[in-house]
Specification:
Shape: globular
Mean pLDDT: 92
Oligomer: single chain
Largest sheet: 8 strands, antiparallel
Order of helices and strands: EEEHHHEEEEEEHHEEHHEEEHEHEHEE
Distance between the termini: 34 Å
Number of strands: 18
Amino acid sequence: MSVRELWISGYRSVHALRFELAPVTVVVGPNGSGKTNVYRSLYLLHAAARGEFAHTLAEEGGMPSALWAGARKKTETARVTVGVRLEDLAYELSCGLVPPPQGSFMLDPDVKEETVWVHEGTRRHVVAERRAQSVFARDAEGRRTTFAAKLWGHESLLAQISEPHRFPLLSALRAELLHWRFYHHFRTDPESPLRHEQVGVRTPALAHDGRDLAAALMTIQEIGDTRAMHDAVTRAFPGARLELDSEEGRFSLHLHMPGLGRPLGAAELSDGTLRYLCLLAALLSPRPPAFLALNEPETSLHPSLLEPLARLIADASRRGQIFVTTHARELATALEKNTRAALLTLRRTGGATELSEEEDTD
């Protein structure tokens, strides 16, 4: 199911934002405009389905750090709300601070409301609703079921109600959100796992931090589009050749560069080269996700790599929906040209992230 619409309110720099998503959506704007907050809001939905909602917010400093930091009206409640509409299903989650007495976990989120509904034309039918710890859901026959047991306040109902045969729509929604894939940062320091040999496990989907890069590339070579992988390397590094080695079940990669007497191992490659190879592995996955999100993939890349990266993203968009945030106008323009991407420009006005129709000149 493709993602049709996203709405966010009360989350960090986003006071209120709502927009439609296309097969390829590119969110562009200068540093500090709120691009990562939009990306993270999508990840919050994924984390809610995984049962890691509280843990994800804890990585951001806890619930108080996630709340809108600007001025509020007297009647405005301090809450984070994130919602998404898929083809025929929609889901919204709203959370706030833990009410007193807070106990030891005062930085946890407290889920205040959740709603799941089905769209039928202009009408919508609620199939599950949560108000604090009171929850009802409609089963496969449409019967309303109220749950007597209290849910954990810090996690979503999607992660706590797991009865696929009884509640197939909830199960379908959770499965859809779980299959989303996110890439934000690839660790490339000298101790990074991707710079060293790796145990050879079949890896159809690159890990979020790229730690299994050699195994993911070897998997593409064996069961994926090998030609596309090597073509992408040649486009990015003219005259170069990627070599993947397996010795006693351990994988490693080498890059043959023109003019050099020996290939360069992963430990010797630049940060930008390694990050490009990670993006290549993510975008050429033999098992592509229905929805793939990239946050500022141009980080550490030389401008000459933006056109090859745009080509990779364009090819991946034929297999699934793509969401990209970037502050590189060159990448946004290339994606708009190659994929007819929907281009959304963000700006900060009075501290709040807003959509802008003005040309971004940063």
